[in-house]
């Protein structure tokens, strides 16, 4: 039986300001969810947003208050080992709140997989890989700093895929910044851009043409999420793959985007999808439609990143890799043993549940209030 559900806000400083077109992240707030069951087993989940309400319509504070007030009371007393009926109850009674639902589903599946003594991935159909390629986002806003940061990552053998955040400056200035980095890093390295919706369609046509000619490998959410027809026009017009991110908020969007050929690649995010099961559904739709897959992040800490890793490890095709670098952007970790990044890959934890152990002292030290 589900006995209690606790939510905590943790404020964790970033290693450097992380600049997106919609916000600059200096401190990341993690919402941790702890589900306690009457058999003594507990499960952990996490939700993060980017820049409070700058990126989406949930904030860390709204996730906490909505779980505490509306979602948790629906779950207390339900059978803890029956995660599907518990999630069905939430989905029936609660509109929206995908991030909150995802954090709860993560905690419930973590607890259930611990109960069965299997990795969480095995509750989602089973993993087909034990390590995931991980991109790093260069977002200092400064070309030389970004090049130096990328060179350091290559030397450490941590990342050889780099995603650049653009869209704040004029198209030409952004293109010059990206192509300078691409030239400095060379052909062995994959350079991609995320415009975070900043361009209009005409800007996008100009910008993407120049980026494609300069050898850039992937263009993420170049225009407003609402302009799905524009996404389809860009996907048809260019050879360089166009990736859907902000427009993709779960299986129904995945179905619609696939139907209208509005993206070549989906960035699957567990929280944007509304949970781990729904993230799998998004991936299934992509695979059936011949759309490529990328494992996205909402800059989660270790718990959300481990949960994402368990989901992405089940994807049969993960052609574009992942960007599960969230914990590496933060100055503090909350695990007893950090996640392992080695040879350009994140190792998917193999222990029971999420396969990570929470350091309670660290959590207490970072807890808000
Ligand atoms: C996004 O839009 O992809 C993911 C990586 C990163 O640097 O920012 C996030 C959000
Ligand atoms: Mg994005």
UniProtKB/TrEMBL annotation:
Stretches assigned to the Mandelate racemase/muconate lactonizing enzyme C-terminal domain: 144-241
Alphabetized Gene3D superfamilies for the sequence: Enolase-like C-terminal domain, Enolase-like, N-terminal domain
InterPro entries xrefs: Chloromuconate_cycloisomerase, Enolase-like_C_sf, Enolase-like_N, Enolase_C-like, Mandel_Rmase/mucon_lact_enz_CS, Mandelate_racemase_C, Mandelate_racemase_N_dom
Entry's Gene Ontology BP terms: amino acid catabolic process; peptide metabolic process
Presence of keyword Iron-sulfur: no
Keywords: Aromatic hydrocarbons catabolism, Isomerase, Manganese, Metal-binding
Active site: 165 (proton acceptor), 323 (proton donor)
UniProt GO molecular function: chloromuconate cycloisomerase activity; manganese ion binding; muconate cycloisomerase activity; racemase and epimerase activity
UniProt cofactor(s): Mn(2+)
PROSITE patterns in UniProt: MR_MLE_1, MR_MLE_2
Protein name: Muconate cycloisomerase
The organism of origin for this protein: Serratia oryzae
């Amino acid at each position: 039986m589900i006995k209690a559900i606790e939510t905590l806000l943790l404020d964790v400083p970033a290693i450097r300001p992380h600049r997106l077109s919609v916000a600059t992240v200096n401190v990341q707030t993690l919402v941790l969810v702890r589900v306690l069951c009457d058999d003594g087993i507990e499960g952990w989940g996490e939700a993060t947003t980017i820049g409070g309400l700058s990126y989406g319509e949930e904030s860390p504070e709204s996730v906490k208050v909505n779980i505490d007030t509306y979602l948790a009371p629906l779950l207390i007393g339900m059978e803890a080992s029956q995660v599907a009926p518990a999630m069905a109850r939430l989905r029936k009674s609660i509109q929206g709140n995908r991030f909150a639902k995802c954090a709860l589903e993560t905690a419930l599946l973590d607890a259930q997989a611990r109960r069965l003594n299997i990795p969480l991935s095995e509750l989602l159909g089973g993993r087909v890989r034990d390590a995931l390629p991980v991109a790093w986002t260069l977002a200092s806003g400064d070309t030389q700093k970004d090049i130096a940061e990328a060179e350091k990552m290559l030397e450490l053998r941590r990342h050889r895929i780099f995603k650049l955040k653009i869209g704040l400056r004029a198209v030409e200035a952004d293109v010059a910044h990206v192509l300078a980095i691409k030239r400095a890093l060379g052909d062995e390295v994959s350079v991609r851009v995320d415009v975070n919706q900043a361009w209009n369609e005409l800007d996008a046509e100009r910008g993407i043409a120049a980026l494609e000619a300069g050898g850039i490998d992937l263009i993420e959410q170049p225009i407003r999420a609402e302009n799905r027809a524009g996404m389809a026009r860009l996907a048809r017009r260019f050879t360089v793959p166009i990736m859907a991110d902000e427009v993709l908020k779960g299986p129904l969007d995945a179905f619609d985007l696939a139907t209208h050929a509005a993206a070549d690649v989906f960035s699957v995010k567990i929280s944007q999808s509304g949970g781990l099961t729904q993230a799998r559904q998004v991936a299934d739709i992509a695979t059936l439609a011949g759309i490529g897959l990328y494992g996205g992040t909402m800059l989660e800490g270790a718990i959300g990143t481990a949960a994402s890793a368990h989901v992405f490890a089940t994807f049969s095709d993960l052609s574009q890799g992942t960007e599960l670098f969230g914990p590496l952007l933060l100055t503090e970790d909350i695990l007893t043993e950090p996640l392992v990044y080695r040879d350009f890959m994140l190792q998917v934890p193999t222990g029971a549940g999420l396969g990570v152990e929470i350091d309670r002292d660290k959590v207490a030290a970072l807890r808000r209030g």
